[in-house]
């Protein structure tokens, strides 16, 4: 682990706080590479795993989505393993839902 995690506190409800991991693109890319090939995993599960790995209560969904879009554009990690081609977010990926389906099928 050569990157230091950025963890910020934020309010959760009236009297509680929550630690939120702000992942780097490298952290997201490493988690994508660890996802099982040929199977569609869940972005939420990826965020939960990152939060647990770095000792946070949650992982920022907006930052994770931004990194997924960038990763899809530069092809640095297998983003298709966690982006459901039937969800609207898939249209933001380079190549769209069709590319995601093709890459998943190629890994099977």
Which characteristics define this entry?
alpha+beta, three-stranded mixed sheet, 3 strands
Order of helices and strands: EEHHEHH
In angstroms, what is the radius of gyration?
14 Å
What gap, in angstroms, lies between the N and C termini? 30 Å
Total of helices:
4
* SSE class: alpha+beta
Low-confidence stretches: none
Q: If strands are numbered along the chain, what order do they take across the biggest sheet? A: 1-2-3
- Topology, number of strands: 3
What's the story with the biggest beta sheet?
A: 3 strands, mixed
Average of per-residue pLDDT values: 93
Residues in helices, as a percent range: 40-55%
Beta content: 5-15%
* Rough outline: elongated
Write structural notes for this entry.
The protein has helices at residues 25-34, 43-53, 61-74, 96-107; strands spanning 6-12, 16-22, 58-59. The protein is α+β, with helices and mostly antiparallel strands and 108 residues long. The protein has a three-stranded mixed β-sheet. Strand 1 and strand 2 form a beta hairpin. The longest helix has 14 residues, at 61-74. The N and C termini lie far apart (30 Å).
Question: Layout of SSEs?
Answer:
Blueprint: E1 6-12, E2 16-22, H1 25-34, H2 43-53, E3 58-59, H3 61-74, H4 96-107
Parallel strand pairs: 2-3
Antiparallel strand pairs: 1-2
Give the gist of this structure.
The chain is of the alpha+beta class and 108 residues long. It has helices at 25-34, 43-53, 61-74, 96-107; strands at residues 6-12, 16-22, 58-59. Strands 1-2-3 form a 3-stranded mixed sheet.
């Amino acid at each position: 682990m050569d990157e230091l995690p950025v963890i910020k506190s934020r309010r959760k409800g009236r009297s509680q706080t929550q630690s939120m991991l702000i992942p780097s693109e490298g952290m997201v890319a490493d988690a994508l590479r660890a996802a099982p090939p040929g199977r569609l995993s869940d972005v939420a599960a990826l965020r939960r795993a990152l939060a647990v790995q770095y000792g946070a209560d949650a992982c920022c969904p907006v930052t994770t989505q931004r990194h997924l879009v960038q990763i899809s554009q530069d092809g640095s990690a297998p983003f298709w393993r966690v982006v459901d081609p039937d969800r609207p977010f898939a249209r933001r990926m380079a190549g769209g839902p069709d590319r995601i389906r093709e890459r998943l099928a190629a890994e099977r």
